[in-house]
Amino acid sequence: MNRSSHHIFPGTRTGVPPTYEMLKEEHEVAVLGTPQGSGPVMSTVVNIRSETVVPDHIVWSLFNTLFFNPCCLGFVAFAYSVKSRDRKMVGDVIGAQSYASTAKCLNIWALVLGLLVICAVTIAVIVMYTTVLAQI
Known about the structure:
Elements: H1 11-14, H2 20-32, H3 58-66, H4 73-90, H5 93-135
């Protein structure tokens, strides 16, 4: 190692507090590096593995399981959501995306059918109520 050490804060040895300009200059040297000559430039490539975000729709599936569950579609969607989460934890992104896509499709169908059933029951109750009132 070198005997003359490089300090981050130049004023720490001399007892003088560092100024903004001194800190800025030190930061520029740290970021840009030392000035280079006309020699060959070497570069390094660092590949950072980005985590692919795969939505598993587990909250939506749980909601459909509890409230909109025609033909048990909400429960099946919940099972596919759990499978998607398991695949994601193992690292199988393609499998997780496949299960998540199926869960999303099942959730959409469960929601649409559940809303249609609610609308149909509401209309049937209103029609029955008005016919009973008309007979009185």
